[in-house]
């Protein structure tokens, strides 16, 4: 009865027949064990959940994103809550040959590529209650490989040594890292984010999009910025970061941007914002603004260093945001667990 009462909040979006079928299917899905199939649902469903009825239900076109948003809006949202937009890819293993989009995708759970389906989910993350509610999920497919291979680029070399000449190649131009051409999968994700923002409307103000380390590059950052959001993600542990140049101004040429390269074994003591000790593990947190040569703008970076006092081993992770005004005590602290 709780499930039926919960579904009454979406009765204006779907007809009563579909709503009744949805109640039967949800009850069976939560009761059954093993992989969910239409045949399994029909065996676990109560009266009104025959196999033919379930087939009719899944043949309908339903705006699931709108239904999810109505449920979240009426049952889960709080007025004093702060929301983040989170996105992640998930892999579902699948056998067979005829399923649309079936291919081999890398799964972090298995640690290797597996045969299955790939889905990308967008959710609203409640900072106060630390709960993520999925609003939209779409299937991702691999780009078809071209049968015509492009000719490899030839590099001018020195005849005597067989190596490329020193210096910058003649005729090369600076790359505009803001005006980048997004790959097909990022264009698909950008479209999903724009559809979600249009669904939420002006009453929900989102500022940050939280993505995992697979999106810790400039293309993903520009994709999020074009959606008028700021990105919170993770960089590679060996990312080449540079402190802003603080030396004397040059008499000629453009002002220098890059200062000393960041050494992760000797981070600036002035950037240390928090230090804690848990047993033999000391955790140091550094917060600073740095340059990356693949990004057009300064990055707001948080580096978390863990040091084992017994073995003297250390490890670190690098989180970053495109919002330079983002304080460590506020948004970054709440977004650490979701990256």
Q: How would you describe this structure to a colleague?
A:
There is one protein chain. The protein folds into 3 domains: 1-62, no CATH class; 78-142 and 177-233, Nucleotidyltransferase, domain 5 (2-Layer Sandwich), CATH 3.30.420; 236-333, no CATH class. The protein is built from 8 helices and 12 strands. It has helices at residues 2-7, 16-31, 38-44, 51-58, 64-76, 184-200, 218-225, 328-335; strands at residues 83-93, 103-107, 112-126, 131-140, 208-210, 230-235, 241-244, 258-261, 272-278, 281-292, 299-308, 314-321. Strands 1, 2, 3, 4, 5, 6, 7, 8, 9, 10, 11 and 12 form a 12-stranded mixed beta sheet that branches. β3 and β4 form a beta hairpin. α6 packs parallel to α7. Mean pLDDT is 85; it is low at 146-152.
Q: What is the fold's blueprint, element by element?
A:
Layout: H1 2-7, H2 16-31, H3 38-44, H4 51-58, H5 64-76, E1 83-93, E2 103-107, E3 112-126, E4 131-140, H6 184-200, E5 208-210, H7 218-225, E6 230-235, E7 241-244, E8 258-261, E9 272-278, E10 281-292, E11 299-308, E12 314-321, H8 328-335
Parallel strand pairs: 1-5, 5-6
Antiparallel strand pairs: 1-3, 2-3, 3-4, 6-12, 7-8, 7-10, 9-10, 10-11, 11-12
Helix pairs in contact: 2-3, 6-7
Features:
339 residues, alpha+beta, Nucleotidyltransferase, domain 5, twelve-stranded mixed β-sheet, 8 helices, 24% helix
Task: Summarize the entry for a quick read.
By secondary structure, the protein is α+β, with helices and mostly antiparallel strands.
